[in-house]
User: What shape does this take?
Amino acid sequence: MPKDEYQSRAFNIVGTRPIRPDGIDKVTGKARYGADMTAPGMLWGAILRSPHAHARIKSIDTSEAEAMKGVKAVITRADFPKLDLDPGMADILDNSMAGEKALYDGHAVAAVAASSKSLAYAALDAIKVEYEVLPHVVDVDLAMKPDAPVIHAARQDETVPEGLSENVTSRSQYGHGDPEEGFKKADLVIERHFTTAATHQGYIEPNACLAQMGADGQGDLFVCTQGHYMVRDTCAEILGLEAGKLRVTASEIGGGFGGKTHIWMEPVALMLSMKSGKPVKLVLTRDEVFRATGPTSSSSTDIKIGMTKDGKITAATGTFRLQSGAYPGATAFLSAMCGFAPYDLEHVRTEGLEVMTNRPKAAAYRAPGSPMAAYAVESVIDELCQKLDLDPLETRLKNAAREGTKSAYGPTYPAIGLEATLKAAQEHPHWTAPLGENQGRGVACGFWFNFGGNTSVNLMVNPDGTVSLSEGNPDIGGSRASMSMMAAEELGIPLDQVRCVISDTGSLGLNDVTDGSRVTFAVGLATIKAARHAIEIMKTRAAMKWGIEPEAVDWVDGAAVPAGPNAGKFPPMSIKEIAAIAANTGGPIAGHCEANAEGAGVSFATHMVDTEVDPETGAVKVLRYTVFQDAGKAIHPDYVEGQFQGGAAQGIGWALNEEYIHDEDGRLLNAGFLDYRIPVASDLPMIEPVILEIPNPGHPYGVRGVGETSIVPPLAAIANSVSRGAGVRLTSLPMSPPKIRAAVKAG
Amino acid sequence: MVAVRLWGSLADLAGAPEVEVEAATLGGLLTALERDYPALKPQLDRGISVSIDGRIYNDGWSTPIAEDSEVVLLNRLTGG
Assistant: This one.
């Protein structure tokens, strides 16, 4: 068996709950977030944004702003180099700074760098933009109509059939069998239409960066992001720079959830720095974060499922329409792949349609495309269970995908953990706890792929035998803790002997973005390999000292030992002792790994929630919430539980309160946390996490990603709970009080 | 020959939900698909993921594929 495959073993450090290494810095204010960096001679940047949802930019007069004392640079799209970019890169540039048209309320049209923040904003007021306002569309269904305003012409790919609006840019289809035949075998078929609103990731730290471009073409960027290598490569391409000339350092990150896997304003800061010749700090306001950094897609979905009286699904179909904002690139294909992934279906067919609208470019939000798909699918399954008087957990178990199931998106599953989550839910006391009046209990399942990707790790053994570990993924979910734990485990040394840092792009090989729940899997794999590389070097050094062959040395409990009686009699040589003679035995000792990790294991979860509906006001109180999820192996269970709880909390907000609200002119009306209401602690019960560990065969410790699956089931679980409590099926999110009250009144 | 299952839109372009190509690695598979089914090229250029015996791969050209492997083309996965 290859060494990077799963091997069952006992752990000393992995699976324990040590104090997090970044905790003190964060609670004392020492940690440096995106807006915390300054530089000598630094200017403040500010961005002028379109007040229109769709408008042709007829002219921009910056002369008055440029003449203001203290204003060092004013830029528009005309200042960016005209390069032959591929469509994706051209879209990123256009989203950073509008070209011929402003495509949504909040689209950047000009920017200023000035000696103070107040002066920068005053200069924005002095810029005169003449617009020709165009018809707009923000609703996904309206945007698909043949007479809808077209956001961009000729952006459809070859998969889009004729006859659809030019706003439909791509279509994907998955499935197998013959659903029409399957529906004939059903005792009950339910078909429903569902909608979900656009919701923002709601990260607490606004996007921020500090750009410093030199006259020699070399530059530095300090930025809050989920992927500083991606920022480097994209900004370099857009600005016509060589990637090696731009060094990007990731700040601490106050939340991302997928929203910081994209470029928003970094090219603007770099261009302001180029033009002014000074460092430029750019910090978005909360209003700008809402208006101009992507929320997730809103969606419109049709689901049809047939079921027998004893609970067997005979066929299922789904059409998922996701709006991508002002550019192609939604994740309806992931909705089409994920929606029915938890189930073993003989007949299934799905379709995903990506649709442009006059909204900010849609961004990933934890398991992009999957939560809205699960919401619709799991709602219909719940309604079938109600109408056929079936147990919702038993019915899901009857149809659950298992090892050997041909998934709804095509491949046959290896060992997976859905069944384990359902059985754990059945056995949990939550399932049999009594419910009161107007209370309902909802359950739902969810699926996410997880993936690996390009990863580089350095592990240096210092002269005193301590270990410095460098990884290149911003730590959004505890990666410094989990990497340190895996390194210490592999080396056989105490955890406090390892310190992990996040390297800049000039110090370590390429690392893909922190997304796809990839880091604990892929960076963990690379960390283990780097530690094993260092061990091999240390075994060689010990062999040199003992005068025996390296093959005659083993590594046990943090020390080199003779492999057997024939190797000779030598006392164990600890990592400290080996490090102390490194200069005499060949020089510094370091292990490293650069790899494109593949083989991430898919992940499933089952959520259970109790809610109480006030029939008079429509208000919903979440009473109890339990998450059952397969983590493969929980390296640091506190962090894993935090991921489970965080996903559930964000899903509760998506289900009950959160939505982008536009006026009739397409302007966003609730660009702030007072009017866009994310759940706060007083809205939530203690969310109980139940970790299951079904090892991923593709990781030495069995790790699966856990960061995204937890947001997939909550929308449906809450909807099913509320629908049962209210006695009426809700089919539109968010289930805000007016919507619930109206539904209850309508009966 | 390796049997390759295509998702619906690609199946329409290739003219069949499953095609066979001569390939022993992931890189060879992509080359053969582009050569034998040129209608797939735009999507291949945009990027795809490939499931080989239930494991999903994005880039590893040297990943071996056996004649009896289950190979499924998928849209390129992205995450948050």
Notes: Residues 519-546 of chain A form the longest helix (28 residues). Chain A touches chain B through 47 residues (CB under 8 Å). The two ends of chain A are 60 Å apart (CA to CA).
